Amino acid sequence: QVQLVESGGGLVQAGGSLRLSCAASGRTFSSYAMGWFRQAPGKGREFVAAISWSTGSTYYADSVKGRFTISRDNARNTVYLHMNSLKPEDTAVYYCAADLGPTPATTAQAMGVTKEWWYDYWGQGTQVTVSS
Predict the structure, then answer these.
(1) Is 129 helix (H, G, I), strand (E, B) or coil?
(2) Out of 13, 16, 108, 118, which residue is the most buried by the measure of CB atoms under 10 Å away?
(3) Which residues face 31 on adjacent strands?
(4) Pick from 124, 94, 100: nearest CA to 112
């Protein structure tokens, strides 16, 4: 079992910044990657960013490239999502997710980290609201 606890959401004006945190506990030693997804009202859940625990490889949705940065602290089993230049369309519930591995064998397989089906555990979500 892996437990994920998100924090850092809130209300911010357009152009502002927030940092989300996701602390993982439990059976994290076999995890390959952590991801962030978001779900806006009336819409499906979409990929935002992901990072590999071992290689540090990062992946981003086109909509957040250049504005969001994902990082990790392996010692703390924590992943961060630094969000800058926030827009009203970034308003959503943000979820972190963890997989149970194994490490993908190819670069193509690794792209699976951008998909919901890749992950085995999900956090409870944290609300981010960006006002215009």
Answers:
(1) strand
(2) 118
(3) none
(4) 100
